[in-house]
Amino acid sequence: MKLVEPEFECVSREDISRWRGQRWAQEQDHLAVEVPVALEFNDVSHAVMLATPCDLESFALGFALSEGIVQNRAEFRRAEVEEGPLGITVHCEISGHAFLKLKQRRRNMTGRTGCGLCGVESLEQVFRALPAVPVASPISVSAMRTALKSLAALQPLNRLTGGMHAAAWSSPDGTLKHVCEDVGRHNALDKLIGMMAERGLSFQDGFLLITSRASVEMVQKAATVGISGLIAISAPTALAVWTAQTAGMTLIAFARGDEFVSYAHGNRIQGTE
Question: What is the CATH number of the domain that holds 113?
């Protein structure tokens, strides 16, 4: 698989006026960059998302995998990133078999930040069939604690801007192996999925940690690639909980410090006896 990506700025500097101590101060602030990113598959436009323009090749591959456009890395042949006057286009080449399936269930998604279902054409597409996730090793309380404690230090873009989501992959002992950031929570997860797929890493050897709420789209994307454990810092939705229960995924939310809430298959958490 060939991946080509130019360099883009993911953080911008802006002159600002800050009101503090009963007076104005002239300063510079760092802002998260978001641009329209169009994903094309075999020269056919499929989705336009607002995203942070870094790790775009990983984003394209991860999106293709998490949306079921391709079944595996081998079906994703190449990606080329092109900057235009209105945004960025990622030209993706997928196998003929994958493209045929894509045309059969074609949908046109024009997305916004934080939007994962924009443009679906029917209710059936919302409730797409998901595979039962593989039964992986239990997640320990100590591993969750270690991963959560390490996460902030591995979010350099959020540290600058305060406006980025992160998706992280933890080994079973709580060591964070990969962290991806984006203004959109779905984009951050797709970037992580793509990055792991590029490197041939297993989605069963560890667990997923996200800084956002656990929406149904996040659960769907994780389940599609076989992730069996999702840890969210914020709240889940009722549909996300039902989806995780049905798919056999362990879903933990409100994971902060030593506290967390189990919403699905919490019997797989070690250290709670």
Answer: 3.10.20.10
Full residue range of the structural domain in which residue 209 is found: 139-270
94 plus 176 within the same structural domain: no
Is residue 2 assigned to a domain?
no
| Cβ neighbours of residue 99 closer than 8 Å, sequence gap 6 or more | 41, 42
What's the token pair of residue 56? 């775009």
Same domain, 116 and 152: no
Q: Is 17 part of a structural domain of the chain?
A: no
Catalytic residue among 10, 54, 92, 115: 115
Using one digit for the tens of pLDDT, what is the confidence trace for 155-165? 999 999 999 99
- Asked if residue 87 lies in contact with residue 69, where contact means CB atoms within 8 angstroms, the answer is no
Q: Provide the domain count of the chain.
A: 2
pLDDT category at 22 given cuts 50, 70, 90 is very high
86: left (phi over 0), alpha (psi -120 to 50) or beta: alpha
**CA 207 to mean position of chain CA atoms:** 13
Structure tokens at 154: 């591995």
84 CB-near residues (< 8 Å, 6+ apart): none
Q: Using 50, 70 and 90 to split pLDDT, how confident is the model at 110? A: very low
The predicted pLDDT at position 129 comes to 78
**Helix 56-66, helix 216-224: angle, nearest 10:** 90
- Same domain? 120 vs 195: no
Q: Which pair of structure tokens corresponds to residue 141?
A: 């309380």
How far apart, in whole angstroms, are the C-alpha atoms of residue 222 and residue 134?
12
In a shared domain, residues 97 and 183: no
CA separation for the pair 63, 167 (Å, rounded): 14
Q: Is 115 tagged catalytic? A: yes
